[in-house]
Amino acid sequence: MILKGKKGIIFGALDTKSIAWKVAELAHAEGAEFILSNAPIALRMGAINELAEKTGSEVIACDVSLNEDMDNLIDKAVAKFGKLDFVLHSIGMSLNIRKKNPYTDLNYELMHKTFDISAISFHRLMQTLMKKDAMNEWGSILALTYIAAQRVFPDYSEMAESKSLLESFARSFGYHYGVSKKVRVNTISQSPTMTTAGGGVGGFDAFFTYADKMSPLGNANAEACAQYCISLFSDYTKYVTMQNLYHDGGFSNTGISANLMEMVQKAGEQTA
User: Fold this and answer.
1) Percent of the residues in the chain that have a pLDDT greater than 90, as a whole number
2) To bridge 135 with a disulfide, which of 32, 139, 266, 267 should be the other Cys (CB 3.0-4.6 Å)?
């Protein structure tokens, strides 16, 4: 049980498809205790109470765009556990994607809200943790990201910029947190994953198949991502920090795969 005795917070477990849900299940199995948190509306829509019962966890609502909500959550977590050992930020939402606004005609007010929820919340979380001295030395803070932060995926829209900002916060805040408290901060760039959030991106099913064919190992699923998260919460990765860690079956370093070439050739023959 590599997390025995460790305490933390897990953000973003909406339903059984969620990566955060899988992380919570595995963290519990590995001996950790934690608080589950999500936005008030997500708590009403999701099934988080089922997960809380299964893992013996408390659920605390938190609108991550509000300083007072973040203060309340961290205060309650510290009151319950003392200092924390790990935190997972698995939060992201694009209001422009929800409104089906094309990338070349975005609503900037909605964009600001998207950035606040999906990326600035990560800085707000770490700043709050640091100000309250809420993390143990060698603690681990993780956020989930996607390779659209580095490459163009047209239907990912403003979430690409959100993920770029998220990754930058991990590097910059990771430096300061490492120097002052020996806390490590990383992002995991995950394969396309069949989650409720992923399904909201246009053309997701087609891209999931494309990425699976491109990746030498195939797409990493939510369960495998949870295992990677647990390893990064553990003491076995104490000197890993300020990294964007690709967990994508090799997709990020593959130019073209034989499987994909075969699919393109067959499509060309059919249209010839």
Assistant:
1) 82
2) 139
Contacts of 85 (CB under 8 A, 6+ apart): 3, 6, 7, 8, 32, 135, 136, 139, 140, 233
Classified as helix, coil or strand, 132 is coil
What average pLDDT does range 114-138 have in this prediction? 98
Residue 166: which domain range? 7-271
Does 179 map to a domain? yes
| 83 is a domain residue | yes
**How many Cα neighbours within 13 Å face the side chain of 58?**
14
pLDDT score of 208? 87
**DSSP conformation class of 192:** P
Mean pLDDT of all residues belonging to the chain? 93
**Rounded CA gap, 58 and 27, in Å?**
14
The phi-psi region of residue 256 (left if phi > 0; otherwise alpha if psi is between -120 and 50; otherwise beta) is beta
Burial bucket for residue 151 (CB in 10 Å: 0-12, 13-18, 19+):
exposed
CATH code of the domain in which 65 resides: 3.40.50.720
pLDDT digit string, tens, across residues 256-266? 888 888 877 87
Q: What would the two tokens of residue 15 be?
A: 């339903």
pTM here is 0.93
Segment 226-255 shows an average pLDDT of: 97
Average pLDDT over residues 163-182: 98
User: What would the two tokens of residue 247 be?
Assistant: 């967990």
Is position 2 within any domain?
no
CB 190 within 8 A of CB 145: yes
| Cα–Cα distance measured from residue 182 to residue 46, given in angstroms and rounded to the nearest whole number | 35
The Cα–Cα gap between 163 and 148 comes to 7
**Strand ranges of the sheet holding 33-38, from the earlier edge strand across to the other edge:** 58-61, 33-38, 7-11, 84-89, 135-145, 184-190, 244-247
Number of domains comprising the chain: 1
